[in-house]
Specification:
By secondary structure, this protein is an all-alpha fold. It is 78% helix and 0% strand.
Length: 189
């Protein structure tokens, strides 16, 4: 029962985040927007930071599921990349992405509350993206290298988009990256 209540509360907080973000809100303001009390948020998530980390974890899981669905639906890795970029670049996701990068910045300074985030921010994505490259024909170390480069480049492009808003330039850059990362060497390996 407590797990269901926690998940329901997390759902409401994720929805609140998607409506406009809350990284600048206090725990009481987040609670009010989610239709609960700050005490319930503390009970279920331990702290404001614990809540923010769980919200990002949930949104990231949704993004990984969306990427897997695209890969299952499409045979063209460039098209998978193109569609996934469009999803990530959707302005409706900007509040969640800003929160992601906010927590990322705290993780760079090894804030103790970011330990779970630091443990998963690369690992949770590297495996699934490597599997995607394997699915499209790259093996072992090459799939791994392409996965890590894809993860870093996509995050860089997304951060640039959030900072500059240069959508046309960054859409074109994402398109170029998709073509480059999925290109086969001349010998076809």
């Amino acid at each position: 029962m407590a797990g269901d209540a926690r998940e329901s509360l997390l759902d409401r907080c994720v929805n609140l985040l998607k409506k406009g973000g809350f990284s600048q809100l206090s725990l009481r303001e987040i609670a009010s927007g989610a239709g609960t009390s700050h005490r319930m948020l503390l009970y279920h998530f331990g702290s404001r930071e614990g809540l923010l980390t769980e919200v990002v974890r949930r949104v990231e899981a949704e993004q990984r599921a969306a990427l897997a669905a695209l890969a299952a639906e499409l045979d063209d890795p460039v098209e998978v990349s193109r569609r996934f970029w469009r999803r990530l670049a959707d302005p409706a996701l900007a509040p969640a992405e800003r929160l992601f990068f906010e927590i990322y910045a705290h993780a760079l300074f090894e804030k103790s509350w970011t330990d779970p985030f630091r443990a998963s921010v690369i690992a949770a994505w590297a495996g699934p993206v490597e599997e995607l490259f394997t699915h499209f024909g790259w093996a072992g170390p090459e799939a791994r290298r392409r996965a890590r480069l894809s993860l870093a480049a996509t995050r860089g492009l997304l951060l640039d988009l959030l900072i500059t808003g240069d959508r046309d330039v960054l859409d074109a850059a994402a398109e170029l990256f998709a073509e480059l990362i999925t290109a086969r060497p001349p010998n076809g390996a």
